[in-house]
Amino acid sequence: MIDMEVIEMKKKLRTVVTTDGEIDDINSFIRLLMYANDMEVAGIILTSSMFHYSGNSTKPPYRWTGTTWIPKMIQYYGKVYANLIRHDVDYPTPETLQSVYRIGNISDVGEMSEETEGSNFLAELILDNDTRPLYIQTWGGTNTTARALKTIQERYEHTAQWSEIKAKVEMKVVLYMILEQDSTYRDYIAPNWNLTILSDDMNFGYFSYGWKNLDTARKALFESQWQLKHIVGKGELLEKYALIGDGHYLKGELDSDQFGQESYLIAHPECQRYDFISEGDSPSYFYLLQTALRGYESPSYGGWGGRFKKVHNQTYQNRAYDYNPATSRFEVEYSFVRWIQAIQADFAARAKWCTTDQFHQVNHYPVVSTIEDKSVLAGQTVILNAQAKDLNDLPLVYKWWCYEEVSTYWDFSHVQMIEEKRAFGGMEFVMSIHSDTIEKDWELDMEGIDTSTVKINIPEDAKSGETFHIILEVSNQCDTPLTTYQRIILTVE
User: Fold this and answer.
1) Is 68 helix (H, G, I), strand (E, B) or coil?
2) Could you tell me the residue range of the domain that residue 264 belongs to?
3) Which class for 233: exposed (0-12), middle (13-18), buried (19 or more C-beta within 10 A)?
């Protein structure tokens, strides 16, 4: 029997979403609402970007989709809320989410000269007495965040409190950036603040408009057949989840980017009706989801939001690379795309939660007891035992593996990487960073990797302080399996 007292409690990370209202932001926001039980959404702030702004007295709006779409989506969330809380009581009420919505700096690209309701609200969250990290997701420009920081600087810079306030802000704020969509990070934030930065300027593309560059198996999880089976018709909230050629029209958007219209299908014969459009901003909160992969402990650990490499001070970029066994290459993008099957299966399962208040009619996560990190000896045989149960009594599948690229026993820093760029929408993006083909000749000796008990043989030449990151995946057997993870770090004495 599992001792429920040793089950790891859900760790909710505190976050603020800043978004500019593109169709892929709207889709990302809909999915975020379905994961609002697994994070603490402290703020939702509308901002601008180089792609979207509301305009002012001298400049007309550009691709501006308005200020009401966020409260409208929360209203649709409210229509499925009664079902969702039957599957997890941690889902916040629609009223709670509405109460933290604010409009920030939206009038122009990079506008940060004026204090706004949104920037002041963000400044208050940064300065409040909650000592937990505040993860600011940047789906649009950084300008509203920059204005909040500028307000704090102007208020305290010439006071005796400044050094204490500045240290508090730099300790607390973590900025997850999807591209740089205006110049305010480069021009103001970086020169004035030593914040922790997670920069996703590439991997997000595989969950965005560049999803067709995925391999065949993963690409199928975004195509129309999958969407029709798992997402279309799954409740009032997902009725607003935009797909290619589904008839939706986004007021304010360019005619060429009206993905839901028949004209778009005609102009793009490579697309099928109900294909995925984009959710380019979703990796910023995938990083926050506590699947027990413990990615929040270090950006280098890896998880659903990707894996990051320190490039300067507290700045981390998605340049950490993992070995892809299908291509026999190290690839930066594989540190993210390796999780896509689990991410999409998880989404499909939650879509079913939206449709019923009957707990046992739909799938839920296996319950897995916590396995603590361990100190080990070189040459030692370590046995790890997983205790797990399924709440619906479904059969369970076990998978143990060593995350070798994160483990410090191996050194892959010498691998030479090559950049591959592709053009999209008039801009050039790095779509792949990979090595030449390399035959794999490293592997941790593990026995019983598909059972509940694994035997791990620590190498004789392992040195003191070196680590092995062991990942346990426990999945239930059904058409939309849910996976519970454990990361166990073995450290050589």
Assistant:
1) coil
2) 9-362
3) exposed
